[in-house]
Amino acid sequence: MKYTGNPETIRLIEGEGYIGMYKRATIQEVINLMYYEDIRELVRKSYFIIKEEQKNQSVKKDFLEKLK
Predict the structure, then answer these.
(1) Quick check: pTM over 0.70?
(2) 64 located within any domain
(3) For 9-44, what is each residue's pLDDT tens digit?
(4) Residue 18, helix vs strand vs coil
(5) CA distance linking residue 20 with residue 42, whole number of Å
(6) Which of 20, 25, 34, 67 could form a disulfide with 29 if both were Cys (CB 3.0 to 4.6 A apart)?
């Protein structure tokens, strides 16, 4: 759920239910576009895990800066 690569390498192909276009969206916009509830919940949980990880990294960075 967390893509850390180059976004230019993403290529969507046309297929059933898919279109060849992507854009940035809020978590709520993404969830509203999903049909299946279990997939919506997976994306929601992943989003909050990533946000928590980012917060923990900034706390860790601040702590290490104070030690210098």
Answers:
(1) no
(2) yes
(3) 766 666 666 665 667 788 888 888 888 888 889 888
(4) strand
(5) 23
(6) 25
